[in-house]
Write a structure and sequence with these properties.
NEP1-R1, nucleus, lipid metabolism, 2 strands, mainly alpha, transmembrane helix, 5% strand, Nuclear envelope phosphatase-regulatory subunit 1
């Protein structure tokens, strides 16, 4: 059986590793968020130009897409990014923290979004 000093060291080591892992995800997450924002703005801008073009109503759907390559390419890029899992990559740290909270709840603990452990008071058994 472990004594309380060993348990405290294990908790500190776990917390250090969890915060290290989440902090290492932050730069990549920031880059993926910027990519998603840029492609989304390009798609929205292209969609606006596509919709306000009077020729869009007069020609077939595929011809109107051919006439607006900026919108077509940005839309295909956005769809490709979602198929590649960008929606998971932009929230990866919060997914890790949520899964840790689920596991830690069984031990009467939790963690914040940075990985710092939160020890909850022990429930009183009567």
């Amino acid at each position: 059986m472990m004594n309380s000093l060993e348990q405290a060291e294990d908790l500190k080591a776990f917390e250090r590793r969890l915060t290290e892992y989440i902090s290492c995800l932050q730069p990549a997450t920031g880059r993926w968020r910027m990519i998603l924002i840029v492609v989304s703005v390009c798609t929205a801008t292209g969609a606006w130009n596509w919709l306000i073009d009077p020729e869009t109503q007069k020609v077939s759907f595929f011809t109107s897409l051919w006439n607006h390559p900026f919108f077509t390419i940005s839309c295909i890029t956005l769809i490709g990014l979602f198929f590649a899992g960008i929606h998971k990559r932009v929230v990866a740290p919060s997914i890790i923290a949520a899964r840790c909270r689920t596991v830690l709840a069984e031990y009467n603990m939790s963690c914040d979004d940075t990985g710092k452990l939160i020890l909850k008071p022990r429930p009183h058994v009567q």
